[in-house]
Design a protein that fits this description.
127 residues; mainly alpha
């Protein structure tokens, strides 16, 4: 597989994984509790992302799969926790403030940039 093909495949897998976990497989127990530090709902959500990324990375022969997945877990958890608490503190809601949606968009951007960084790390390590 060429490097360009590997990059596109890896990013595509990360994007699909993210879409599924954030928008189809995230029950209220997770999204309602991501703003509470240490709550199992938020930890499970970030953990699902990290575990799925680990499984995506394995076929690429990535020796850093565990490290990258742990990094994603931390970044995902902190970004979601922060987003939830900014919305709460500012009183922003999906039907009252456009800033709510801007923050959701920024949250998604950070997650996507995380995948680009992970992909860069994998491709660089494969030479």
């Amino acid at each position: 597989m060429t490097s360009a093909t590997s990059v596109l495949l890896l990013i595509t897998l990360f994007l699909w994984k993210h879409f599924v976990w954030d928008f189809y497989c995230q029950p209220p127990y997770m999204w309602k509790n991501k703003g509470t530090l240490g709550h199992p709902g938020g930890l499970l959500h970030a953990g699902a992302h990290a575990a799925s990324s680990f499984l995506i990375l394995l076929p690429f022969g990535c020796e850093q799969a565990l490290f990258l997945s742990i990094c994603e877990f931390i970044i995902h958890y902190v970004v979601d926790f922060t987003k939830m608490n900014i919305n709460k503190e500012m009183g922003w809601a999906c039907n009252t403030h456009e800033q709510f949606w801007q923050l959701v968009g920024f949250d998604q951007l950070i997650h996507q940039l995380t995948y680009i960084g992970m992909t860069f790390t994998v491709i660089r390590s494969l030479g």
